[in-house]
Specification:
By secondary structure, the chain is of the alpha+beta class. It contains three helices and 21 strands. It has a five-stranded mixed beta sheet with strand order 6-9-10-4-12, with no helix packed on it. Strands 16, 17, 18, 20 and 21 form a five-stranded antiparallel beta sheet that branches. It has a four-stranded mixed beta sheet with strand order 7-8-5-11, with no helix packed on it. Keywords: Membrane, Transmembrane, Transmembrane helix.
């Protein structure tokens, strides 16, 4: 019994001793937990700061043509193309800065005697060194992503670009396709300078054309032979009105009239001359020779219902056929009506 009591007493004392030791170790454990929390917080902050630093640097958006610059607000993409030139206005006595999203590998200036440049990290300081305000040159900035083109211009102080910041959104500071833009400006200047002379020349040309037309009408009316031959098929009427001549040139006036309520197409207009034969070889009615019409004729052109088309066929004829021209001349117009070919032929004009 005594041994049992001693054992129970020793157990109770051991439990109380463990409780006392645990209570004594509790502040130490809380202290270790606090330091562990601080360690986790510092590691998270360092990782976040590292990510922010990486995002603030220029990253390749494309392997060839663009930068990508990121921050919390937006993603900025800087275009690097051969037809985009950024414009920087400078003035004598002023310093302009170009801010890049990354450190340039090399910088080359076109006219080194007229401009000075200094590279400090991601910034390039530009200062004009000449009094000639008409001097323009280019600045080429080589980066690992491509070549940035900058046009340097000397202007008045009020137009100076103090900071061309290419790490932010850029508006109204670049010239797209600079060569074409310059050619367009020069063209506008030339047009403005010679506009009065061009207007006078246009007026003289129109007057000459009008006079020429009037003279031509007078001559044609004098040398006109009235014909008035007609042929009608499917409601389409072909009429040859007259034939006129000035020197070696003949003018055949004709008219097409659509008396139907359907549209039709003129496929082509042809002019033929019967070569016939002679006294020894005999007459051959199938022997024809096409005459080339010199002026433009309707070709694959659609016309509306109840439409009248008036035109002139201009042509030349060989000397040996001139005597019997009217009796050997054939005129043909091929039209499409309801998807069917209709040939309007007038022979022995």
């Amino acid at each position: 019994m005594e041994n049992t009591k001693i054992t129970r007493t020793s157990r109770i004392q051991g439990i109380e001793r463990i409780k006392n030791n645990r209570d004594a170790f509790l502040p130490m454990r809380q202290f270790l937990n606090f330091y562990f929390f601080l360690f986790i917080l510092s590691v998270s902050s360092a990782f976040y700061f590292h990510m922010r630093c990486d995002a603030a640097n220029a990253q390749p958006y494309s392997s060839l043509v663009k930068y990508s610059f990121k921050n919390r607000l937006y993603t900025h993409r800087l275009a690097i193309k051969s037809d985009i030139i950024y414009k920087l206005n400078t003035a004598l006595g002023y310093v302009s800065i170009i801010t890049l999203p990354c450190i340039p590998l090399n910088v080359a200036i076109g006219s080194a005697s007229d401009f000075s440049e200094q590279i400090v990290g991601k910034q390039i300081f530009i200062k004009p060194m000449t009094y000639n305000s008409k001097i323009n040159t280019n600045l080429e900035i080589l980066t690992k992503y491509g070549l940035i083109n900058v046009l340097l211009k000397i202007t008045k102080p009020k137009y100076v670009t103090y900071d061309l910041n290419l790490t932010q959104r850029v508006n109204n500071v670049f010239v797209t396709n600079y060569i074409k833009t310059k050619i367009k400006k020069d063209e506008d200047i030339i047009k403005e300078k010679y506009s009065k002379k061009l207007n006078l020349l246009d007026k003289e040309r129109s007057d000459i054309k009008k006079q020429k037309k009037e003279i031509l009408n007078i001559v044609l009316s004098v040398n006109k032979i009235k014909i008035n031959k007609k042929i009608r098929k499917k409601g389409i009427v072909l009429t040859i009105n007259s034939l006129s001549r000035i020197g070696k040139i003949y003018y055949l006036q004709y008219q097409l009239t659509n008396t139907t309520d359907r549209k039709f197409f003129i496929r082509n207009v042809y002019l033929f001359l019967e070569t016939g034969g002679n006294f020894f070889s005999g007459y051959n009615p199938t022997g024809v020779r096409e005459i080339m019409i010199m002026n433009q004729q309707p070709h694959n052109k659609q016309y509306m219902p109840y439409k009248i088309i008036r035109n002139v066929a201009v042509f030349k004829v060989n000397k040996k056929y001139k005597l019997k021209l009217l009796s050997r001349l054939k005129f043909s117009v091929h039209i499409l009506l309801n998807k069917k070919l209709v040939k309007l032929n007038i022979g022995s004009v």
